[in-house]
Design brief:
Blueprint lengths: L2 E3 L46 H21 L45 E6 L14 H10 L4 E3 L5 E3 L2 E6 L5 E6 L13 H14 L9 E8 L2 E6 L6 H4 L10 H4 L20 E6 L5 E5 L13 E6 L3 H9 L5 E3 L4 H5 L7 E4 L9 E7 L9 H10 L2 H8 L5 E2 L23 H10 L11 E7 L4 H18 L1 E8 L2 H10 L4 E6 L5 H4 L1 H4 L19 H10 L5 H18 L2 E7 L3 E4 L2 E2 L16 E2 L9
Parallel strand pairs: 2-11, 16-17, 16-18
Antiparallel strand pairs: 1-17, 3-4, 5-6, 6-8, 7-8, 9-10, 10-11, 12-20, 13-20, 14-18, 14-19, 15-19, 21-22
Length: 621
């Protein structure tokens, strides 16, 4: 297990991409620690403030990225411009894919010479599984949406459209959904798609998906005929069609996956068999995932792309360099400010926030472990909220495109309620009083306690906020914070799910309806240790569960709005999470690529309508 561990409350270990160009010997860990008050790195006043570590990180990233982009064509990383702020950038190991031909003068780079057979999609995380029955992580659902069909697709407004289900009807009590399957649908191995596959897949998703509140009220699935399935519910489900759409509930071939092998261990999770527009071909020598069209695909137009290559770029810097070098055709890049910071050529790509209403903005914040002292006490959680200067976060550390978070919903969401607005103003005296009341006095050295803040392998802004949090709690409250960054996302997820942390930097996608994306964060029944992105704090409150259950069994929008207002008010009072911001991650699309934006799922939609085009589309910036 490779872990970067901080040994001081507000020191900074630079990310791997910013370390010396001379890599240390194997087994040797070299750290660059920069004290927060250091002023010599910049003439900007910010670098003389308590946020200096963040300033230096930003300066170092800018220098390393600029040098790397400039030196990419020459084959070396080049020196950094801010030598006293950070060490020189080391060469970045990029997947050895052929760079796009820049094209003759007057053309969009790569457009005229683009190989129409190949589409290269960037993944920011390497998929732990290719089977979306377990997780909605984009690294899984992007390939999963190509490999597996679902009962429904959604249009841009979230209305269900035919996919495997060609016709459907709800019972008068709206507690049963009858679906009639496409009669000619086939799996990649040639077997027909039947109601038995639908029943197996829906129940497996209910029992194994990390969004375990999504289909929790499915009682069973009847199969009166091979082409008909009846999904029985405990009560009306306000997000049923969304939950049964691609990419959330894939339809798996029962004859492959229901063979007695535990689903989590099934080899077909890595070499899937589905009924989507593309089938699995191979993992390349560079560990990219290559998909090819399914010749017997009958659920939509035949794919125009002959080779779909999904390439993992481990860091934002590497991703940006891949865009700058023309190695990527489609991906996400966020926040939008990174587009310019990383030198991505606007003449080659368009940047858009359209077509991702179901994905939404990343919700970023801090989770408190409510099963471990000191954050098992509400007064301590509230003290942390008072100790953080959110104005500093919003104006100095976080990107301009972010929106302050007053709760789990972004401001434009129909159920949003500013429950946090002015509830926890920056007030260190109030924070001190809360800690004293909680029985956490300072010792002779001024310390109250020591805690661990768990970090995922995240990017610039998340790391900056974590370091500011550590600094603020140490300086203002005497809480010594040690940051532990797990560079392996699997280990980070395991520790988060197992409660192996005191504080944790967390980020979530809302995934459309709150029954799908938000209930899992607060409902006590969502505390599944084996799943990604569970109820990480271990929050359990019967009043919260009752509110969420009520909101999950009514389709009345006004009633749901009132219930979710109460949910947000109770969450702000109990504070299992301290939400900080909503950060956009827009799509980056080559201008000569036709990528339909008629779905709410962004990159996690089937690519049967994606094709190269002769003329470039305008950018949306």
């Amino acid at each position: 297990m490779h872990r970067r561990r901080e040994t001081a409350p507000w020191s900074m270990t630079l990310p791997n991409t910013l370390r010396s160009a001379n890599p240390p010997a194997r087994g040797h860990r070299r750290q660059r620690r920069i004290d927060a008050p250091r002023r010599s790195a910049s003439r900007n006043g910010l670098c003389g403030t308590p946020a200096a570590a963040v300033c230096l990180l930003a300066l170092a990233l800018g220098a390393a990225t600029a040098a790397g982009a400039a030196g990419a064509a020459a084959g070396d990383a080049g020196p950094t411009a801010a030598a006293d702020a950070a060490p020189a950038a080391e060469p970045v190991a990029m997947p050895p894919l052929p760079a796009a031909d820049p094209g003759p003068a007057g053309t969009v780079p790569g457009a005229a010479q683009r190989d129409p057979a190949l589409l290269r999609v960037a993944l920011l995380n390497y998929p732990l599984t290719l089977n979306p029955i377990f997780t909605a992580a984009p690294s899984t659902t992007i390939p999963g949406a190509q490999l597996f069909a679902s009962l429904f697709r959604l249009d841009a407004d979230g209305a269900p459209q035919p996919y495997l289900a060609r016709r459907w009807s709800l019972s008068p009590a709206r507690d049963a959904l009858t679906v009639h399957l496409a009669p000619d649908a086939r799996f990649h191995d040639g077997e027909p798609v039947t109601s038995a596959d639908v029943a197996f897949s829906i129940l497996a998703t209910r029992d194994h998906h990390s969004f375990n509140t999504m289909l929790a009220d499915v009682v069973g699935v009847d199969t009166p005929s091979p082409g008909t399935a009846v999904i029985r519910l405990r009560h009306p489900h306000p997000a049923l069609f969304m939950a049964l759409s691609v990419p959330l509930t894939p339809i798996l071939p029962a004859h492959v996956y229901d063979d007695g092998t535990p689903l989590a261990e099934h080899p077909a999770n890595q070499r899937p068999v589905g009924s989507g527009p593309f089938r699995f071909h191979r993992r390349t020598a560079e560990d990219a995932i290559e998909l090819v069209p399914f010749d017997d695909y009958r659920l939509g137009p035949p794919p125009a792309i002959e080779r779909l290559l999904l390439v993992h770029y481990p860091t934002v810097t590497q991703h940006g360099l891949g865009l700058a070098r023309g190695e990527i055709d489609l991906g996400v890049l966020g926040p939008p400010e990174m587009f310019d910071l990383l030198g991505v050529p606007a003449g080659r790509y368009r940047l858009t926030g359209a077509g991702q209403s179901g994905i939404g903005r990343f919700l970023f914040g801090v989770a408190f472990n409510m099963h471990r002292p000191p954050f098992d006490r509400r007064e301590v959680r509230r003290a942390v909220a008072h100790a953080l200067d959110r104005e500093t976060l919003y104006t100095t550390l976080l990107p301009d495109s972010q929106q302050p978070a007053d709760g789990p919903f972004p401001p434009e969401h129909p159920f949003a309620f500013p429950a946090m607005d002015q509830r926890y103003p920056h007030d260190t005296a109030r924070a001190e009083a809360l800690l004293e009341a909680a029985g956490l006095p300072r010792d002779a050295d001024g310390r109250r306690t020591r805690v661990v803040l768990l970090m995922p392998p995240a990017g610039l802004y998340f790391e900056a906020v974590a370091r500011y949090t550590a600094w603020a709690l140490d300086r203002s409250l005497g809480i010594e914070v040690h940051i532990e960054t797990e560079v392996d996302p699997r280990v980070w997820a395991q520790r988060l799910a197992a409660g192996d942390f005191d504080l944790a930097s967390v980020f979530y996608l809302p995934w459309g309806d709150p029954l799908i994306g938000m209930h899992r964060l607060y409902h006590s029944g969502a505390d599944r240790a084996e799943h990604l992105y569970p109820n990480a704090p271990g929050y359990a409150d019967p009043a919260m569960d009752a509110l969420l259950d009520a909101a999950g069994r009514t389709e009345d929008a006004s009633r749901r709005k009132a219930l979710y207002r109460s949910v947000q008010a109770l969450a702000a009072e109990d504070l299992p999470y301290l939400w900080l911001s909503h950060i956009p991650f827009p799509l980056v699309i080559r201008r000569d690529l036709h990528f339909p934006l008629d779905s709410p799922w962004a990159l996690t939609q089937p690519y049967d309508g994606v094709a190269w085009q002769a003329e470039a589309a305008p950018a949306e910036r």
